[in-house]
């Protein structure tokens, strides 16, 4: 599998590209900014974009979606419960003092336990609300968990923004994420990667 993770935007969102090395079919997760960089990586690897996936619809995770979609295609997808955030990108950017962003057209609503194929690989969708109502995590066999802003190395996502809920977030982490084996890698929406075992042992929000 081709797998790249790189930071985009002022808030350093971890954008990820996963692709089948045989078919060159790919997915992009959280195209938050720097559309040129994302498109450049797709071109570099000669990839065909199947999906533009979002762990949630905060502006720093969805800001480049419209541009990447218009240039490279790919089905745009997120959880329906985050559409109110997607439709209010202008309000989000004003709140954080950022430049306005074009609102992308969402073509598919993802649900818990959905599976998506890209070439010979698959990923599974986990609904992990709390940071936002529609927050998702993705499990990719052989890679690990992409957790967005639900679970970080040594921390958890903030719950003081629109639709956030601390009890819901903690429940999602315990129910959906901590059930994976301890050696499962975690690729969060910001910051360094970690493992399930490390977070069980050291994350102060989970003890």
Brief digest:
The protein has helices at 35-44, 59-62, 65-72, 83-86, 89-96, 166-177, 196-202; strands spanning 2-8, 13-19, 25-29, 48-53, 75-79, 108-110, 115-118, 121-127, 136-140, 144-148, 151-152, 155-156, 185-188, 194-195. By secondary structure, it is α/β, with parallel strands linked by helices. The protein has one domain (2-202): Ribonuclease Z/Hydroxyacylglutathione hydrolase-like (Metallo-beta-lactamase, Chain A), CATH 3.60.15.
CATH arch. level architecture: 4-Layer Sandwich
Shape: globular
CATH class, named Alpha Beta
**Total of DSSP H or I helical runs spanning 4+ residues:** 7
The CATH superfamily is Ribonuclease Z/Hydroxyacylglutathione hydrolase-like
Distance N to C terminus: 35 Å
Q: If strands are numbered along the chain, what order do they take across the biggest sheet?
A: 1-2-3-4-5-6
**Which strand-content bin applies to the residues?**
25-35%
The arrangement of helices and strands along the chain is EEEHEHHEHHEEEEEEEHEEH
Count of spatially separate domains = 1
Radius of gyration in whole Å, from Cα? 16 Å
Biggest sheet statistics: 6 strands, mixed
- In terms of per-residue confidence, which ranges show pLDDT below 50 for 5 or more consecutive residues? none
Number of strands: 14
* Helix/strand/pairing category: alpha/beta
Round the mean pLDDT to the nearest integer and report it: 97
CATH topology (fold) name: Metallo-beta-lactamase, Chain A
Helix content: 25-40%
